[in-house]
Structures are given as structure tokens and as C-alpha cells.
């Protein structure tokens, strides 16, 4: 079968590896030291909601679980493309520690995946900002198991030069998406 794939120029799609999310705290330290971008304490998980009671129950269970006790403030937000973004506000922006936030993002992704809704997952992101007011997100592509930086520049524009700088900065900390055509813009992403 691999010979046929090679002959036809097809490759096997990468499998999601949610444990790659745990490389984000290291990338946050590197990003802060090299560029001055610090975590905002906000992350989000984007997924396409499916019809049916089972999905609604899983989404409600995740939201209730995260909103109890000392969990992060969590809210679902729908975008114009039909995706739901589960926005999590946590972590410690003063210290730059995003370990708890990343753990919660991992829990959301894992819960949806284990309930059979993995194909509905689009991406997850963690937001950063600098003292000049610029924002950046490190975006995790669920279906690829890779990250890419996204830097909005107002309206429907992005700062490609800064994205490439950030790519070079965190390249040793997180697995980066090599195919830049997959670096899709997440304009207006809740939490960014």
C-alpha cells in the first residue's frame, strides 16, 4: 500500500498528538524572552458542533466541569463560519505561566476526541500580547498535530513578517506546520 501511495504522490495524514500542547509553556518562555510577547491568559478550542443530543451533552459537561471550583472561566462563542469556540480564561499572565491553561485546553480536546467528536475539532490557540498592543496566537491544528503563529494586523490583514519571526523563535519548542498554505487566518477568533 505504501508503494501505491508513493507512486500516486499521496501521503498518510498526520495523526493528532494532543500531548504536543504541553510544549506550549516552553514556547511561551522562549517567546517572552526573545520578543516580549507574554501570555494573556486566554486560550480557546474551535470545533464544528454536530447535531444531536450526545454532542450537546458533551459540550455542556465540559463547560460545567471547567466552570466549577477553581477552574478557568469558560464560555462558548459561535463565529460566522459555524464553528464554536470554547474560550478559556486562566493561567497567570503576571508570571507568564500557562501550564494550567494548556492542561484545560488539552482536557477539552481530549474530552471531545474520546466522545467520538475528534473529526469536529478544528484548532486550539493560546493568545499573547506585547507592550505595544500587538497580539499573536500560537495555533494548534488538531488534524495535523502542528502549530503555526498567527498575527492579526487589523481588519482582514495579518503581519506575515512577524509570523515568520515567531516561527523562527519557537521552532525548537513546538512542532511547526511546514506547509504555510495551512496557516489559515483566524480573524476575529474569540480570545485573540
Describe the structure.
With about 190 residues, the chain is an alpha+beta fold. The protein has one domain (about 15-175): 2-Layer Sandwich (Alpha-Beta Plaits). It is about 35% helix and about 20% strand. The protein has 5 helices and 6 strands. The chain has a 6-stranded antiparallel sheet with strand order 2-3-1-4-5-6. A hairpin with a 4-residue loop joins strand 5 and strand 6 (about 145-150). Helix 3 packs antiparallel against helix 4 (about 100-115). The longest helix has 19 residues, at about 100-115. The protein is globular and about 45 Å long. It starts with a helix and ends in a 22-residue tail after the last helix.
Structural class determined from secondary elements: alpha+beta
Q: C-alpha Rg, in Å?
A: 17 Å
The biggest beta sheet is recorded as: 6 strands, antiparallel
Instruction: Give the averaged pLDDT, no decimals.
Output: 86
What is the ordering of alpha helices and beta strands? HHEHEEHEEEH
Would you identify the CATH architecture? 2-Layer Sandwich
Per DSSP, what share of the residues sits in E-state strands of 2 or more residues? 15-25%
Strand arrangement within the widest β-sheet reads 2-3-1-4-5-6
Helical proportion?
A: 25-40%
Shape: globular
- State the end-to-end CA separation: 43 Å
